[in-house]
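Predict structure. Chain length: 104.
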Amino acid sequence: MSIPNIIKREIPPTYPGEMLEEDFMPDYGLTTASLADALGVTRQTINEVLRNRRAITPVMALRLSRLFGNSPEFWLNAQHAIDLWESEKCFENELNKIRLLHAA
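Prediction complete.
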């Protein structure tokens, strides 16, 4: 039996870039340059991810999962949570106009 999740979050989910910067990079002794080198991307790309200006793509999720030994779904789920949060806030007025349909 599943538990319905009907309680809305009051605070935004953690950005993947914030997770990288605060949880992963210090633990592995990585700098922006060394992370970029390890992933085979530019420092600019990593900087944009860390500053939450670039989303985690499926390819980046695969790169990160290979580097850190976790799943690509971990990274994509984190990005997905942010995308949904921001979309809901952006379109809140429009979404509130939609009423739940009940089957006949």
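Summary: The domain at 16-96 is CATH 1.10.260.40 (434 Repressor (Amino-terminal Domain)).
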